[in-house]
Amino acid sequence: MSFSSFALDLSPVATSRWGSQGPNLHFHQQQQHHRRSFVFCSLKPAAPSSLSVAESAATESLSRIRSLSQVSGVLGSQWGDEGKGKLVDILAEHFDIVARCQGGANAGHTIYNSEGKKFALHLVPSGILNEETLCVIGNGVVVHLPGLFKEIDGLEANGVSCKGRILVSDRAHLLFDFHQVVDGLREAELSKSLIGTTRRGIGPCYSSKLIRNGIRVSDLRHMDTFPQKLDSLLSDAASRFPGFNYTPEMLRDEVENYKRYAEKLEPFIADTVHVMYESIAQKKSILVEGGQATMLDIDFGTYPFVTSSSPSAGGICTGLGIAPRAVGDLIGVVKAYTTRVGSGPFPTEILGQGGDLLRFAGQEFGTTTGRPRRCDLSEIRLGVAYKHADGTPVQSFPADLRLLEQLKVEYEVLPGWKSDISSIRNYSDLPKAARQYVERIEELVGVPVHYIGVGPGRDALIFK
């Protein structure tokens, strides 16, 4: 995956005003076929004399957002928790549709409305606060209906209308409560080698999908065969896990629950693949909201300490049925420092007092689980390369985790800053050290930074 721009959220140790959003960078890919022939640049043109600096910046930022391609995506470029939801919420005003393409309720996206009210979303796309935006849950998502209805009810109770604004793919797989139980049993089996999942049942549900005995949203329209399919799923789990106690009463109760859910979900069900196709044909704009992040990708992440789906660019096509040629700009989101939850190698991790300081300053606790995120300070020790123990450079990120654990990190040391930057809205007003940090990252990755987050609220964003 290549990017042509990104954005950075920058306030590590000095302030605790981020809520759950740490510093993030937003990268932005441009596909050059069938599209306009320009690339984003981090240099600003001279502002017309008739406009103030603030007006000029606002005009430029709006122009940049409107120049995004018809189908754009916001993806995590690290291990998740980078602040994707905030950026999607900001951009959603300029898109007709915001769509989730993969993952499930293991994605926790925290957003704030214009009054500063906090919303923690797990399945509902982060465009829901924008009244004109249609939100789509695509075929690649696994859907826990009790959780989805709880989210919808919570939004409605807080004045956010969901009626006619959420579509759920008839091809999406259903995640049942027993999947969550199995997730916990599986983690217990692994003992010291546990994956560190959210225990939301995501992996077991995707397992059901891939061994082809899963149940899809469309199956809710056929309650005559639904009990047999659910019985097969539950019996399979009971045969695999001795700790899973499957009884006829469990089946009866779940069938009755899902009869009610089926009726309640019916107004939301749609062939979202067709919706995507028709929307593209009608020149409607689509923003895809990724869950998790590239380093948790089932193929490209730190396997097996990964999620069960494809949070990288390919998941857009498989999880929504959008043709690759239609996908244009990709905005990758990264923090100014790196965090992850769960297990797995983390070469630049800072343990002890330094990690604790950053974790509490940045409120680095998972939206979905509340678990402390594992942090590295980038305090301005900037990891720029991996090397073998003998000093030989590593040319690409290794698939072998044993090798990854043994690698040495090459750092560049940059000056830090101690001032509170949460109220800054113009790039030129950032401390010199902060600007040097941003610009050094641009040099290293070959991609310009376009958006710099300095807090969790909608307005806490610098357009560069």
From TrEMBL:
One of its GO terms (molecular function) is adenylosuccinate synthase activity. One of its GO terms (cellular component) is chloroplast. One of its GO terms (biological process) is 'de novo' AMP biosynthetic process. IMP binds at residues 81-84, 106-109, 198, 212, 292, 307, 371. Mg(2+) binds at residues 81, 108. It is found in: Plastid, Chloroplast. Substrate binds at residues 367-373. It comes from the Eukaryota. PANTHER family: ADENYLOSUCCINATE SYNTHETASE. This is Adenylosuccinate synthetase, chloroplastic. It comes from Durio zibethinus (Durian). The gene is LOC111311533.
